[in-house]
Structures are given as structure tokens and as C-alpha cells.
Amino acid sequence: MFAPATSGHGFAACCARVVCSPWLRLALLFVLLAGGAVAMLHWEPQRLLSGGWPAQLSGATALVVFAGAYGLCTTAFVPRPVLNLAAGALFGSVAGLAVALAGTVLGAGLAFGLGRLLGQRALRPLLRARWLTAADRQLSEHGFRSILAVRLFPGLPFSAANYCAAVSRMGWCPFLLATALGSLPNTAAYAVAGARAATPSSPVFLLAMAFLALSALGALMVAWRKREALRGR
Fold it and tell me: Looking at the keywords, is Hydrolase present (predicted)?
């Protein structure tokens, strides 16, 4: 007499297990990221550098909308330099820096949350290679300083760093705080460069570009030292 209920309960439990499957969640993450990447390719956010901002958006509304769009774009692997330059070109050095930094933290938080919710359980058992376990240990035990260094010395793509951190055991607060502090110098340089792009021979523009070049050189030096240290283990 109670068989149908038992059967129904078993079916519901089976569906729940499927929905909660780590691999299904990971597949959903890939689908979302692929969809976002296709949407960005269709929208072409780099057009902001040439076409400008929609005329119907202005003031605080434009800043909020741009910060939200910035966060979504970085989640879908749009390069931050393009967005930072656009922020400076559209809003000036100060407001451009503020909106770009807000979008940076928002995008990092979105990617970290997606990776933690949909990818961590499936990917953690796969961290068996020596360099993967070393990277995971570094992020899990020294997450703040590791993310701070990654943001200060650009090299590893922004979105890739976000998803790698999500798979580790580092906490939300260290991740977001390190992202905000570490991204500040380079974001400021890109915003200034974007604001002064019309006068590329100006001292301010040249200083901003020189700072970015030195940051890239520093990133190469740090990466080389880390590579040698890993070889020596």
C-alpha cells in the first residue's frame, strides 16, 4: 500500500543526488562561462574605447552600470586592461579608478563564488600533480599575500586567478581584500592612461605606461624566481 510513496521518495532522492553531483555542477559552470564568453564576443566591450558610453546613461547611474558590467565582463574572461582604459577614457582618472576598482572586486567576488559553489568539490580531488598541490597549499595557507602578489605583479590572467583561488581553501575576506589592495596601483595606471589617451606624449601618460611596463617586468622576475624555486624542490 505504501510502495508508490517509497518509489516516489526514491526517485526524488535520486534526482537530488544528480542535481547535487559535483560533476554536474562543474558542467554547469563551464556552460555559464562559455555562454558569458559568447555574449562578450557578441557585445564587443572594446567598442567603449571608440564608440563611447550610451548617451542616455550619465552621472551616478552610469558609474553603477559600468561597475556592474565590468564585473560581469571579467567573470567572462574579458581582459581587465581594456576595461580599465575604457573607465579612464569615459569617466576620467579619479572616477575611472573608483569604478574600475569596484568592478574589479565585484568581478573577483562573482568568479570566486561561482568557482567555490560549482567547481570546488569536483576539482579538488584532481589536484595531484606536484605543482598543483604546491599552488593549492600556497593559496590555502598564505592566501592573502599570494593573491596580493598576483594582483600587484600582473601575469596570471585575472579570471584564472579567481577560479584557482576558489578551488583552494582560502577565505572570502582575504581574497577580496587582497584583490582590492593589489589591483589598486595597476588599475590607477590604466585609468590615468585611458584618461590621457588623447595626449599620448604628455608626461602623465608616459609615466603611467612606464609604471605598467615596470610592473610587467617585475612579474616576469617573480615568476622566474618561483620557477627556479620549484625546480630546486
Answer: no
Cα-based angle 115, 129, 134 (whole degrees, multiple of 5): 70
Grid cell at residue 198: 588623447
pLDDT given for residue 18 in this prediction: 46
Q: Which of 180, 175, 186, 181 is nearest to 153 (CA)?
A: 186
pLDDT in tens, 37-57: 777 766 666 666 566 666 666
- In whole angstroms, what is the distance from residue 173 CA to residue 181 CA? 12
Nearest-10 crossing angle of helices 80-91, 172-195: 60
Question: Which of 44, 47, 48 lies closest to 88 in space, CA to CA?
Answer: 48
Confidence of residue 11 (pLDDT cuts 50, 70, 90): very low
pLDDT digits (tens, 9 = 90+) for 125-134: 655 556 567 6
